[in-house]
Amino acid sequence: MASTQTDEDKRKLLKPKVSTDDALAILNEFYTSDSQKAEVVRELDSYDDANYLVKIDGIKALLKIHNGVESEKYIKRHSTKKAKLNDGESVEGSIIDLHTAIFEHLAREEFKVTTCKTIPALASQEDGDNSVSVKELPVVSSEHSPKKLVIRLCAWVHGIPLSSTKYFPLEVLVDAGTYLGRMCHALDDLAASNPAALELSKTYHAWDGRNLVDAMRYVEHIDDPQRRKLVTSVIDTFRQVIIDGGEGKKFRWGVNHGDFNDANIIVSDHDNTGTRVAGAIDFGDTIYRYLFCPVNTAPAR
């Protein structure tokens, strides 16, 4: 689950390289019966996974094929459930298991949070888990292809990204803040009620705000001297005040979305109330971090 520099390089090599035909074959193998019709509408943008908008009997869904890095961790973790570990040996958790716990928890009616609800596979794996499937598929690196990758099918969150709307009323931002508050409350409840999920969320992530100092290695790639100086100044101040000065220890921590921006906020039109927030997507950066991070991220784009 860690997102170190080594992992980042490996993710590029192990990004799924699947075709539309591959995606259709996955749907027919794991998620549809003989009487159902599967259709692949189009591929969607993704940083290190492969995502497709698909339909089963005309109903939209999201087909996600996970990166080989997280797939490896999931497969190793679940295979060791059947095998005895040696003394002192441990197995790193998988963010895929964390996502399963998050989606199941957020689906509870009391939280009023619409997001990617998992659609179970028709058949369970050997350990009984039917939230995902596993299949050998090609990845970007031919040297590592084919590779066993983890696949998840999710209910589609209807609407469009807020970033795709030219104009919207101020009330939409208020609605987004309210939605974010409900989601943060639900994730707080998950952390309090599910120790395993909380433990899975406590991991290093390169894009976690508290790891800003680690971004210094990229500053040399900023061509503009003034911008480079500005970024260096911000990172140096963060190190002096938050890390060395100990101010970071005063902040509250919790499990939170981590990427609540206009590209991941889904809005739709309601007849009586106009444009409203319909849900949120992309929980790939959901970890245990400073609680203010989602509020910090939301207005940043």
Topology:
Elements: H1 5-13, H2 20-30, E1 38-44, E2 50-56, E3 59-65, H3 68-79, H4 95-106, E4 118-119, E5 133-137, E6 147-155, E7 160-161, H5 170-193, H6 195-201, H7 225-244, E8 253-256, E9 265-270, E10 274-280, E11 287-290, H8 293-297
Antiparallel strand pairs: 1-2, 2-3, 3-6, 4-6, 5-6, 7-9, 8-11, 9-10
Notable features of this structure?
hydroxylysine kinase activity, 2 domains, alpha+beta, 8 helices, 301 residues, 3-stranded antiparallel sheet, transferase
Walk me through the structure:
The chain folds into 2 domains: 5-156, Phosphorylase Kinase, domain 1 (2-Layer Sandwich); 162-297, no CATH class. The model is unreliable at 83-90 (pLDDT under 50). Helix 4 crosses helix 5 and helix 4 crosses helix 6 (195-201). The relative contact order is 0.14. The longest helix is centred in the middle third of the chain and has 24 residues, at 170-193. The two termini are 26 Å apart. It contains 8 helices and 11 strands. With 301 residues, the protein is an alpha+beta fold. The strands form 3 sheets. Strands 1, 2, 3, 4, 5 and 6 form a 6-stranded antiparallel beta sheet that branches.
